[in-house]
Amino acid sequence: MSKKTQTLYIFISLLIVVAMGFFFKYYSGPAHKWFNDYGAAVFYEIFWCLFAFWFFRSPSATIQIPVWVFIITCILEFLQLWHPLFLEQFRATLIGKWLVGTTFVWWDFPHYALGSVLGWLWLRQLQIKGYAKKSQS
User: pLDDT per residue over 69-90, tens digit each?
Assistant: First the structure.
């Protein structure tokens, strides 16, 4: 697969993940609490894996990206225990809520792990698809 084609797949994947993430975040049907609070977190992880893969596409990055995304989001979760004025002001904005969250919850960690594993599987598929196309050429 050419870099241009792989970039297109990544872009389409990002659009799908963003749409699903917002759908989960603002879903109001049955089990909406889980979808809003935890299901969206799974897509948050996948989004960051795909976003990083846009820039780093090596086979080793396919493994390293989800690990780093998981570590960084866990750090961000712990930062929710810290309440300096500048961080509270950022969290008060919509983008601040989306990026760094507002409330520390232990139950977020398994969902971050799930999202990172699913992100790794997604990146692996993009990587495998790329190598399969190259070998057929």
Answer: 999 999 999 999 999 999 999 9
Give Cα 127 to chain centroid, integer Å: 17
Structurally, the chain folds into a number of domains equal to 1
Taking only the tens place, the pLDDT of each residue in 97-114 is: 888 888 999 999 999 999
What spatial distance separates the first Cα and last Cα of the chain, rounded to whole Å?
9
Token digits for 19?
């749409």
- C-alpha–C-alpha distance, residues 74 and 33, integer Å: 21
66 to 75, 88, 121, 122, 133: CA distances (angstroms): 14, 28, 9, 10, 24
Sorted by sequence, the CB contacts under 8 Å of residue 1 that are 6+ apart come out as: 9, 129, 130, 132, 133, 134
Query: What range defines the domain where residue 100 resides?
Result: 3-136
Cα gap 112→52, rounded to integer Å: 16
| Best CA proximity match to 6, nearest among 41, 50, 45 | 50
